[in-house]
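Q: Mind making up any chain with C-alpha cells?
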Amino acid sequence: MKAPKQAEGPDGRAVEATVRQVLDAVRADGDAALRTYSATFDGMVPERFEVSEAERAEALAGLDRETRSDTEFAIERVRAFAEAQLATLLPLEVEALPGLHLGHRIIPIRRIGAYVPGGRYPLLSAPIMTIVPAKVAGCAEVIACLPPTAHPAMIAGCHLSGADRIFRVGGAQAIAAMAFGTETIPAVDKIVGPGNAYVNEAKRQVFGPVGIDQLAGPSEIYVLADETGDPAMIATDLLAQAEHDVRTRVGLVTTSRELAEAVLAEVGRQLADLPTAAVAGPAWRDNGEIAVAASEEAMIAYSDIVAAEHLQVHTADPHATAKKLSNYGSLFIGPLASVVYSDKCCGTNHTLPTMGAGRYTGGLWVGSYVKVATHQWLDERGVMAVAPPACRQSRSEGLEGHRRAAALRLDMIEGTAG
C-alpha cells in the first residue's frame, strides 16, 4: 500500500538558492537588506520596522466589537488549554540509588520569534496559536514578525495575544532577521509559525543555531468514514480546508463505496456555488482523493500511512475507531468535531505536522516553548555506586582522562574512609 502523492509546489532548488541569498544578505547587512527585500518582495518599505504603541492602539481601535470579542474568546480558549497542558509538565527529583539524585527542570525558552503569515485573508487565529502558548509557558520575550502588507487586524491580533514586540517584516528575510538579529530586530532562540515555501525553506536553513517548531507543508484534511457518514457534511469539511491553498491535500478514506460516490457528487455540487472555488477547486482536482478500503483495519492502516495533519473520524463508534489510530496531527472524533473549530477558537493548536510528519511528532503546544533539562547530584554513597563501573567502562574505551575523573572522587572518599 503506497502513500498518496504529495502536493506539488515551487521548484525546490530555486527556492533553496533564493533563500540562501536572502539569509546571507540579512546576516551581512542587517536592516539595509530587510529594506531591500521588503521593496522587492512586498512592494513597500515601512517607515520603521517596529510597530509603535500608538500603531498598536490604532490597529486595536480598528477592530469592530464582534471581531475583538471573538478574538478574545479564541485567546482565552487557547490559553486555558495551554495552561492545562503545562500543568502536566512537572519537575522531577528522584533518588535512583542511595546517594544518587537525578531530576529535571521545566525551563521556558528565553526569546521566541513568532512568524505570522499575511496570506490571502486576515487570519486572526494565526498569532493566537503561536504567541499565546509562549506567554503561558513563561517565555521572557515573544516577538512577532508579519509582512508589511498584512491587514492591520493582524497587528491587533498580535497585540491581544501578548506579543512583546511586533515588526513589519515578512518572508524569508523575517526568518533571517529573527535567526541572526539586525540593528532593529533581536535574535531569538526559537522560531515558530507557518509560512509559504520560502519561509519554510528559511526555517530549514537556519535550524541549528536557532530552534524551529517544524517544517510545515500545504494544509491537509482526511476523513475516515463508514456507511454512517453524511456525504454533505464530509464534502463541506473537505472543501472548507481546500480553500486554504491550491496545494491543500484533501481526502476521504471509507469502507463504503456508496458513501464514496455520494461524497464525490456532493463535492462537485458544492463547488458550483462556493465563493472560494477558484482555490478549493484546483486543490480538489489536483490533490484530492477518495479511497475505498476493504475493511476498517485497511482504512486505519492507510490512514496511518498518510498521517494527515487534520484527521476526522465519522464512524458508527468514532471513539472506538480513534483509539486504533496512531499517526495524525490532530484528531477530530465524531461528526460534531469540525477542523474549523480547532483552526479558529476551540483551544487546541492549529499549527500541526504535515507531509507525513505526524508519524513522529505532534503539533505546536505549550511544551514546544520549554526545555526539559536534566540534573544530578551525588553524595558519597552515590559515588561509591557509580564510580567503579564508570572507571571500568572508561578503561575499556581507552579514555584515560575519563577514568581519572571517575576515579578521583572515589579515591578521595576511600582515602577519607581509610
